Automatic annotation (TrEMBL):
Statement: the UniProt record of this protein carries the keyword Transcription regulation: yes
Any Pfam family: HTH_IclR
Domain HTH iclR-type positions: 2-61
PROSITE patterns from the UniProt entry: HTH_ICLR (PS51077), ICLR_ED (PS51078)
Name of the protein this chain belongs to: IclR family transcriptional regulator
Organism in which the protein naturally occurs: Streptomyces decoyicus
IclR-ED domain mapped to chain residues: 62-245
Domain of life: Bacteria
InterPro entries per UniProt: GAF-like_dom_sf, HTH_MetabolicPath_Reg, Tscrpt_reg_IclR_C, Tscrpt_reg_IclR_N, WH-like_DNA-bd_sf, WH_DNA-bd_sf
Keyword Transcription on entry: yes
Amino acid sequence: MSQTVDRALSILPLLAEGPADLGQVADRLGVHKSTALRLLRTLHEHGLVYRQSDQRYRLGARLFALAQQAVENLDVREIAHPHLVALNEKCGHTVHLAVHEENEVLYIDKVESRYPVRMYSRIGKPVAITVAAVAKLLLADLPEPERRALAEKLDYPLYTSRSTPHATAFLAELAKVREQGWATDLGGHEESINCVAAPIRGADGRLVAAMSVSAPNVVVTAEELLTLLPLVRRTADTISREYSGTAIPQ
């Protein structure tokens, strides 16, 4: 039975390359045509493959519907949370998870610092979009015309002397973030708070969320916080692999 399932599943990546006839499927699987036909008929009955008028087979609409349903039902917060907790236990600082929705960047999870000095961020609260590290990552992933249009519409409050002052500076910062693959907020929102952030990507490579580690200067300096960047990026990569279904089973 396991061999039959394995052969049937092997047909799907073959058809992902393009339509194939019965002989091509049989040759790829290394089986007789009658065996390949039985497998194709079973997949066809479930809507996973479709036989065209030229007798070649292609992937079926049901497969795409299942994939879309699976993506829609993925909960990045549920997947990320244990990894955020593990990161917090290693470094002790506040860890955030954020997403881009309806022209806002929102915190959807937070693990508190173990230190007495706490941040006032709250789950469900929008971030300071022109300075927050998670916002820079999420907006940098937008196509260039969307980035430019959004940047021109935003206000640029000067929270501190390090805040992003205008659209030109913001677009330059997003271009830099897009190229390097990570972001910082070093006193841009609050003089005493620094933050480093890394992207969480889906199977298509696009960002689905961003995560960050934040800490006040009285706990660690900006330079000390930046030494955590490799750990933050590894955590984000682990979440990305698990979210996109490419994590290696333990």
